[in-house]
Design goal:
heterodimer; A: 6 helices; 55% helix; 0% strand; globular; B: mainly beta; Porin; 16-stranded antiparallel β-barrel; 6% helix; 56% strand
């Protein structure tokens, strides 16, 4: 277990709460991070709804099942680059958008 | 063959310098979102290789820049700065300095299943090129002997890719990557005209991945390469088993590698838990001569025994011994590496 995972697992209650909130309010998922500028990207409510009609992916699970496949999971990084890392790994590991979103909830509970 | 094989002899020209500078400028324009600050990552390394009694040294720096612009666009690039110091009989040492770009590309997330890639990109064939070539990732220093099959020329293509995820859920995921390279004789983005792609099935519960790759060279010789890989990395034991087979028009071969981090002994931060023994076996078979596929001219077998030590602060020491057998002679290869992996934001993000 690396430090990052430890830090994150400490916050599991918060993550679970986040996931629950997301399940409750489909539209809130796009703006789950109050600091993000994602509000402007939320132009297709119909699609967003369709995505969240199914159970959202569990970020911790996506992390555990993917982030040690090619290299040791990083020992930790600044939250300010979590979106950059996840986007980069989305390309490298061909992750889906749902996986990306789940990882973002996991890294920024 | 060193871990820098995919970066063969490409030097940095004014044009690529300008491309990199523009990416730097893009970094400044991006980072509107708090978590999307551009990052600089990569590794600094010092490696030694003693083959048949001759020792060469390679200090290297391989920085990676990743910069998102908005939610759909990502720029990424890896450069390398390498000094190869080789012994010369009677004259001492000969040094060769290389500065170049391994890839510089733009990725556009079209939707959940499709990402479009344009620029100079690593070819998606097999697993070494895209996944293991960074020295901080590969537990052994050298590229596999079959690396040349499916990865023609510099190992990078100049053109585009369509890649992504066909389906992903908690039981399985199917991913794909297809590419077309127009080819370029420009020395800084040297590449062959080729096309191909790969498909993978990943079973996350079993941590098992099976994939297959195809590549077709579209130069004067139209040649096909196929490959397949199986990776298994069980969740409960720190064991990794990776294997790959590739078949080209004039040669074929396979490698199987396993490593086991001794973290079950007092945790991964204990003196023993930091150790990671590695074993790799490979074999290549030559059907007919080919000066370009980069596989050994004779049938060859090779075994590698490695021992890596993971120090704190992302520093790693690799040591390995390999014995290579072929009809042209057997040889011992001793290698060591000191690797520092770095990762930081280009600036402090807003809180």
């Amino acid at each position: 277990m690396n430090n990052l995972l430890k830090n994150i697992t400490k916050n599991i209650p918060a993550v679970s709460l986040g996931v629950l909130l997301l399940a409750a309010g489909p539209l809130s998922s796009q703006t789950s991070d109050p600091n993000s500028a994602a509000t402007t990207t939320n132009q297709k409510p119909a699609k967003v709804k369709a995505v969240h009609a199914t159970q959202p992916r569990d970020g911790q699970q996506v992390f555990a099942q993917n982030c040690e496949r090619c290299h040791n999971a990083p020992q930790g990084f600044s939250p300010s680059i979590s979106g950059t890392v996840v986007k980069h790994m989305r390309v490298r590991a061909n992750l889906s958008k749902e996986d990306e979103q789940a990882l973002m909830r996991f890294f920024n509970p | 063959m060193s871990y820098l094989t995919p970066l063969r002899n490409i030097r940095l020209s004014h044009r690529s310098a300008i491309a990199l500078l523009s990416m730097g400028a893009l970094c400044l324009a991006s980072a509107l979102v708090a978590q999307d600050v551009p990052l600089i990552s990569g590794a600094g390394s010092f490696t030694t290789n003693t083959t048949g009694g001759n020792t060469s040294y390679q200090p290297a720096l391989t920085p990676v820049l990743v910069a998102p612009v908005g939610q759909h666009l990502l720029f990424e690039s890896r450069a390398y700065i390498v000094d190869s110091i080789n012994p010369q009989p009677h004259t001492g040492y000969d040094t060769q300095f290389h500065v170049g770009v391994a890839y510089a590309q733009a990725d556009y997330f079209l939707n959940s299943h499709v990402t479009l890639v344009g620029g100079f990109s690593l070819i998606p064939f097999g697993t070494y090129n895209e996944r293991l070539s960074p020295i901080w990732i590969n537990p052994l220093q050298d590229a596999p002997l079959i690396y040349g099959i499916g990865n023609p020329g510099s190992g990078s293509g100049t053109g585009g890719q369509i890649r992504g995820n066909i389906v992903s859920n908690e039981n399985y995921s199917i991913t794909y990557a297809t590419y077309f390279s127009a080819g370029s004789t420009d020395f800084q983005i040297n590449s062959s005209r080729s096309t191909g792609g790969q498909v993978e099935l990943y079973l996350p519960k079993a941590r098992l991945e099976i994939g297959t790759s195809y590549g077709r060279l579209l130069e004067h010789d139209k040649m096909n390469a196929i490959g397949t890989h199986v990776w298994w990395e069980p969740a409960n034991i720190p064991l990794k088993l990776r294997s790959e087979y590739a078949h080209g028009p004039h040669s074929q071969g396979y490698w199987v590698e396993t490593d086991y981090r001794l973290s079950q002994f007092h945790g991964e931060n204990s003196a023993i838990g930091r150790l990671e023994p590695i074993f790799r076996i490979q074999q290549t078979f030559r059907n007919s001569p080919d000066n370009n596929d980069e596989l050994p001219a004779q049938n060859t077998q090779r075994v590698d025994f490695g021992l890596d030590y993971h120090l704190p602060h992302e520093v790693r020491m690799n040591t390995s011994y390999a014995r290579q057998f072929s009809s042209s002679g057997n040889v011992n290869i001793w290698e060591t590496a000191l690797i520092y992996r770095f990762l930081f934001p280009t600036w402090k993000g807003k809180k």
